[in-house]
């Protein structure tokens, strides 16, 4: 068995084949779970596909506009 200071408690029952693992939560673990929930919500499923398409379109237009402005000033007639 592990000590309680590690945050994970493992116990094995002798009369059954199931193991029981319990974890104590800390503020750092809560932050990780919050970030994990946000990631799961925004990056998976139909909403994730929409976010990736919008992000790709936004990136395309930013690169297009920067290229247009740069090309204008580079090839500008004097």
Structure, briefly:
The chain has 78 residues and is an alpha+beta fold. The protein has 2 helices and 2 strands; from the N terminus they run ββαα.
Overview of the molecule:
The chain has 78 residues and is of the alpha+beta class. It has one domain. The protein is built from two helices and two strands, in the order ββαα. Strand 1 (8-12) and strand 2 (19-23) form a beta hairpin. It is rod-shaped. 0% of the residues are buried. Pfam families: DUF4731. The chain crosses the membrane at residues 49-74.
> Order of helices and strands, N to C?
EEHH
Percentage of residues in helical conformation: 55-70%
Tell me the Rg in angstroms: 26 Å
- Strand arrangement, largest sheet? 1-2
Shape field: rod-shaped
Classification by helices and strands: alpha+beta
Tell me the distance between the termini. 80 Å
How many domains? The number is 1
Q: Describe the largest sheet.
A: 2 strands, antiparallel
Average pLDDT figure:
77
How many strands?
Answer: 2
The low-confidence runs, each spanning 5 or more residues with pLDDT under 50, are: none
Proportion in β-strands:
5-15%
Transmembrane segments: 49-74
Pfam families: DUF4731
InterPro entries: SMIM1
Keywords: Membrane, Transmembrane, Transmembrane helix
Ordered list of secondary-structure elements with their pairings:
Layout lengths: L7 E5 L6 E5 L3 H17 L1 H30 L4
Antiparallel strand pairs: 1-2
Helix pairs in contact: 1-2
């Amino acid at each position: 068995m592990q000590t309680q200071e590690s945050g994970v408690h493992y116990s094995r029952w002798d009369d059954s084949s199931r193991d029981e693992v319990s974890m104590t939560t800390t503020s750092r673990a809560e932050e990780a779970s919050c970030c994990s929930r946000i990631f799961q919500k925004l990056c998976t499923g139909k909403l994730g596909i929409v976010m990736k398409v919008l992000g790709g379109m936004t990136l395309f237009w930013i690169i297009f506009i920067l290229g247009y402005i740069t090309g204008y000033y580079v090839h500008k007639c004097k």
